[in-house]
Design a protein that fits this description.
The chain is mainly alpha-helical and 229 residues long. 67% of the residues lie in helices and 6% in strands. Helix 1 packs across helix 3. The radius of gyration is 18 Å and the shape is globular. InterPro entries: GntR_C, TF_FadR/GntR_C, Tscrpt_reg_HTH_GntR, WH-like_DNA-bd_sf, WH_DNA-bd_sf.
Length: 229
């Protein structure tokens, strides 16, 4: 794997996991020292992360991990509520038999993740399986613009869910209720799946909003991990 690609994946993982925290100032040289890459691969990675919306370039000062505000979170979910149903509607109809099998496997992983009260690791499994499901459906749709839009959205969404995982492990039953997706997936019912995706996205939004409103940092409009407060 090229060093620039390896650096990009490592930094993206660090940002999504909030080990590089929202709003944190970073420099090429410091990151190169911390993660064992040269400055050039780090610079290439940061350019891509800036394009992804996960990093901001600050002229003559370095970079900043993109902050999260309540408005930014609301905007993310507003975009997902438009994009997500269209992705699943197109993807389930266009999927090959092989892709459908992989999509159902992702869905079954969501089902296995657990009921209303779970450990953080189970919540993370559920979130990641959901991201894989949407990503697989985006690829199956065969539309490069949809895939690119979801790829950019998914990093930010995973970061939001990572932030709330440690804050609140009590997850509403409505959020976990995906068992009734099985029939529409197997029947390739695009409209039915789009409606269920819309309900799931709205439930996610409600849960995230309620959790964030209990954080002291929300009063300052910027969302940061509770462990950093």
């Amino acid at each position: 794997m090229p060093l620039a690609e390896a650096a990009y994946r490592r930094l993206r993982d660090e940002i999504i996991a909030c080990r590089l925290q929202p709003g944190q100032r970073i420099t090429e040289r410091a990151l190169a020292g911390d993660f064992g890459f040269g400055v050039a691969p780090i610079r290439d990675a940061l350019t891509r992360l800036d394009h992804d919306g996960l990093v901001r370039t600050i002229p003559r000062k370095g970079y900043q991990v993109a902050p999260l505000t309540l408005k930014a979170v609301d905007d993310l979910f507003a975009f997902w509520s438009i994009l997500g149903p269209e992705i699943v509607k197109r993807g389930i109809v266009a999927a090959s038999d092989e892709q459908l099998g992989q999509i159902i496997a992702d869905f079954e992983e969501m089902e296995r993740a657990g009921p209303a009260k779970v450990k953080a690791v189970e919540m993370q499994r559920f979130v990641e399986a959901g991201a894989d499901l949407f990503n697989r459906l985006a690829d199956a749709a065969g539309n490069a613009y949809l895939s690119a839009a979801y790829a950019k959205l998914s990093g930010e969404m995973l970061r939001v869910f990572t932030l709330i995982t440690d804050a609140d492990l009590t997850t509403p039953k409505k959020l976990w209720k995906v068992s009734d997706w099985s029939e529409v997936l197997r029947q390739r019912d695009g409209d039915g799946l789009a409606e269920k995706a819309r309900d799931y996205i709205n439930a996610c939004h409600d849960h995230v909003a309620q959790t964030l409103m209990r954080w002291p940092s929300v009063m300052m409009s910027e969302v940061v991990p509770q462990r950093a407060l």
